[in-house]
User: What shape does this take?
Amino acid sequence: MSDKRQRLIDTALNVFYEKGIHSIGINEILKASGVAKKTLYTHFESKAALVLAALKQRDETFLAWLNTRLAGANTNYQLIENLFLGLELWFTGKVPELGDFRGCFFVNTSAEFSTQESDISIYCQAHKQRVRSLIETHLPIPNNTLLDAICLLKEGAINTAYVERDFSAPRKCIELLQAMDKL
Amino acid sequence: MSDKRQRLIDTALNVFYEKGIHSIGINEILKASGVAKKTLYTHFESKAALVLAALKQRDETFLAWLNTRLAGANTNYQLIENLFLGLELWFTGKVPELGDFRGCFFVNTSAEFSTQESDISIYCQAHKQRVRSLIETHLPIPNNTLLDAICLLKEGAINTAYVERDFSAPRKCIELLQAMDKL
DNA sequence: ACAAAGGTAGACCGATCTGTCTACCTCAAC
DNA sequence: GTTGAGGTAGACAGATCGGTCTACCTTTGT
Assistant: This one.
């Protein structure tokens, strides 16, 4: 039935994440997925709808991965290690389900869509909030200041890793947060 | 002479920063700048060359602004305040020369150009390194760990402010760094 | 006086874009 | 055994893309 739909979403996510959205045409996705154009437009009303579906897919995959990475932390420090060593694995291409690292898909996509009111921008914002909530629920000892620090450094690490190609960021974050947590 | 060239660069920077690059056509820049297409192509060999010129312009404007913001700090804490309160002004649209805030132009542009070897991606990387160097030279008491923390949090603040529309990030960064600096 | 350089407006080229449509195929349900 | 949903391939429409080019105008240096 609609395993075609799923194949379109998977392909779209891969291609959009790798090459951006505006620079890729629908035809390229059709070719890569081996699906007919008519089929695409029976499942999605527009390219934007496909983008949104790809974002949703990425959101779910990312949160699922993060959830297993963070599970089982007994101390705040352990959670910090789980998170940032996980990011390091992602950056260096060792997390197959996240694909070759090319920054944060949601940041990249926000950058391409200027109107902050669009569904796409709003979805990107919501994703970041879900990530924050997930980290919060795994924090053994609640600490809002620490949570802020973790989230800000996480964003810093991801963008520094991508734009500056500096993969040492996660280790630095761990050291900083370790010092902070002792306060 | 080539005040037309400058006008093209100014317009391109404004439009690209506001709306992204792949989603804007050359004709839109021509219309907004009131310059003929032939003139554009006598000064720039391609759209990519114009993008590079816009990046260079932004690089210079941003570094000049940052330089005056950071000047005169006598303590590391003062430098941190100068930097992050400056970011807050930027985010909230109170720095005319940086335009209405729409994230970091270099991060946004990197997101649109997938090949990491392109001139454009390399320029974005170099910009971030220049910003880091500038902060380093203004740090009254050298401290590499602190410098790392400042740069990571700065990136985190910029991206959080844009994607999550949360302008409270700079104040949080100041508090975190203030605590850290006491270690 | 005149050549060279820089400017204008905009027609034009070939490619590509999103999205629609025709014509036909496959297959499961009732 | 027919109907309807989902599939295929790909032609097509209309717009827009980056970039070239023609034809002409304006300014400046010598």
Q: What stands out?
A: The mean pLDDT of chain B is 94.
